[in-house]
Structures are given as structure tokens and as C-alpha cells.
């Protein structure tokens, strides 16, 4: 399994990688720092990945849901989990309408929950 993790927090990227290593040791996780690497460009090879973990706010003034809608217009995007520091039911509905498979609040996340969602 190949997972692309897009989040602007180095601490969260490290935490998510550890959780995935614990429950899905076969998963290869590519951590993407949008503060350094920016938004994946048009023509990005999404087919290299089986799952996308996307922060709902992947940088200053960035909107992860808007990014997901744009990615979906550009081609086949893997099943996507939106990860959020904020929000609740309303954010979950917006995430699914944007094309996400699921929405997870970071504060409620643990290794079991992340692995089950994937």
C-alpha cells in the first residue's frame, strides 16, 4: 500500500507515519510538506498511490477541500481521507461533497482509527 500524506505540520506528519507503521507496517508513506513543496501540480501521477491523507488546511490560506476538488478534475485521485484540526459534522459533509471518502478529526485520531479508515 502506498500512502500520500499532505500536511503542513511536521509534527503531525511524523505522528501519522508512526501510527501507520504500527498498524500498517507494509504501507509506504510519502510525506508531502506543502509549505516547501507547494500544491501537487497539474499532471501529478496520482496512480502511484492507493490512498491520500489530506489536511483540510494544508498551508497558510490554503483550502484542502478546494485542492481535492481540483485534483479530481485533473484525473484519478486515490481514495482520500480529509484530516482536520477543527470542524465536526458540517466539515465531514463538506469533505464528502468535495470527493473525500471520509473525514477524521486529528484530535480523535489514533492508530486503530486511522488504519480502519484507510
Layout of helices and strands:
Layout: E1 2-6, H1 10-23, E2 28-32, H2 34-37, E3 51-55, H3 64-74, E4 80-84, H4 89-98, E5 102-105, H5 111-117
Provide a concise account of the structure shown.
The chain is 39% helix and 20% strand.
Describe what you observe in this structure.
This protein has 118 residues and is α/β, with parallel strands linked by helices. The chain has helices spanning 10-23, 34-37, 64-74, 89-98, 111-117, and strands at 2-6, 28-32, 51-55, 80-84, 102-105. The longest helix is centred in the N-terminal third of the chain and has 14 residues, at 10-23. The chain is globular, with a radius of gyration of 13 Å.
How much strand?
A: 15-25%
Could you give the count of β-strands?
5
Strand order of the largest sheet: 2-1-3-4-5
Roughly how many Å is the radius of gyration?
Answer: 13 Å
Cα separation of the termini: 10 Å
The backbone outline, from C-alpha atoms, is globular
Helix/sheet category: alpha/beta
Features:
single chain, 118 residues, alpha/beta, globular
Amino acid at each position: 500500500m502506498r500512502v500520500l500524506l499532505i500536511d503542513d505540520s511536521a509534527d503531525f506528519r511524523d505522528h501519522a507515519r508512526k501510527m501507520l507503521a504500527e498498524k500498517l507496517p507494509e504501507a509506504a508513506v510519502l510525506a508531502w510538506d506543502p509549505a516547501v513543496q507547494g500544491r501537487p501540480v497539474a499532471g501529478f501521477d496520482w496512480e502511484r498511490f492507493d490512498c491520500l491523507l489530506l489536511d483540510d488546511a494544508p498551508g497558510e490560506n490554503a483550502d484542502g477541500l478546494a485542492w481535492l476538488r481540483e485534483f479530481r478534475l485533473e484525473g484519478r485521485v486515490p481514495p482520500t481521507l480529509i484530516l482536520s484540526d477543527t470542524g465536526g459534522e458540517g466539515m465531514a459533509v463538506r469533505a464528502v461533497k468535495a470527493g473525500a471518502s471520509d473525514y477524521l478529526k486529528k484530535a480523535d485520531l489514533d492508530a486503530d482509527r486511522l488504519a480502519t479508515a484507510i
